[in-house]
Amino acid sequence: MAPAVVIEKLQKRYGQVEAVKDVSLQIEPGEIFGLLGPNGAGKTTTIRCLCTLTTPDAGRIEVSGVSVLDEPKLARQRLGYVAQEVALDKVLTGRELLQLQAALYHLPKAIATERIDKMLFLLGLGEWADKKTGTYSGGLRKRLDLAAGLLHQPDVLVLDEPTVGLDIESRSAVWNFLRQLRSEGTTVLITSHYLEEVDALADRVAIIDRGVVIASGTPSELKDRIGGDRITLRIREFTPREEAETAKTLLANFPFVQEAIVNEAQGNSLNLVVDPQSDALLTIQQALKEAGLPTFGVSQSRPSLDDVYLAATGRTLLDADLAAAETRDLKKERKQNMR
Question: Is residue 122 exposed (0-12), middle (13-18) or buried (19+ Cβ within 10 Å)?
């Protein structure tokens, strides 16, 4: 069976900004695949190229064996796309909006009616079907958007931040629906900022940073590669870099410490990967005390996907998002000053 999605050496530049430098992915039929990374990493550009909304500068993209670049119309028939921002006509009811979507896909009326009723039932929209979408909550709007993306029964459903801004109940409903789609053979590609969402849903994950895939595999494989528990340590509330480096040099000499990183974005905290079978926490605290270094805060936990990103880049996803936000703010300020 051909892969559901193949992306090879994808590149896309916007002026001087290299949004995607070199992205290669292969997604198998019937799996949920998570695309993880901070704002500005290249996730949205990658899926826009996949969904024929943006033309890449270089690379190859296929959906169910169809070239997205050579046969975009045929590729669209195999794709369903739900964008991060929900755009619904507020004067239409949910049912009317789905009927319009079905007409755009040239679905016969009988088939369209059957599929619309099925989607409304599966997504818990029955009692809202004949109410105007302007009265819908954010969760209901997202569910309706999902229904619209699935009416033509695509091989691959692409979701950009599917649960951003939703309450816990709505997120749970979307998660359960995506699991049901997978069990029925639909391939799902999701981008998300929610680490726990990708960890809970995805069969496999690729992490993108600055337009390049830096890690890929199952969530368990990625976390196992770290090889131990994570200890996060702060010498002081605001630790000088020099003091943090001194502590790093001291602790890195212990045989149970597999990796030590000074995280500048988090006040020069120390992020350590340690042997989970050792008494690392007690030994570290004692060593710091003997060296005359205080301990402002310390915690130990099992590896997470954020630890995977930290090990690959030296910063957490949150740090990367904050840095991207600061860069955007600086660009806006420069533009305003130039006016």
Answer: middle
Q: Which residues contact 71 (CB under 8 A, 6 or more apart)?
A: none
Residues paired with residue 212 on neighbouring β-strands, in sequence order: 22, 209
Q: Could you tell me the pTM of the whole model?
A: 0.76
Transcribe 237-302 into DSSP letters. TT--HHHHHHHHHHHHTSTTEEEEEEEGGGTSEEEEEE-TTS-HHHHHHHHHHHTT---SEEEEE-
- DSSP lists the bridge partners of residue 321 as none
* Residues 228-302, CATH architecture: 2-Layer Sandwich (3.30)
Give CA–CA dist 125/144, Å, rounded. 8
Domain boundaries, the chain: 5-222, 228-302
Spatial separation of the C-alpha atoms in residues 152 and 98, rounded to whole Å: 11
pLDDT by residue (tens digit) across 37-50?
888 889 999 999 99
pLDDT surpasses 60 at 167: yes
Ordered alpha helix ranges (H), the chain:
43-50, 72-77, 94-104, 109-122, 138-150, 168-183, 195-201, 219-226, 241-252, 280-290, 305-313, 317-338
Is the domain covering 5-222 a CATH 3.40.50.300 domain?
yes
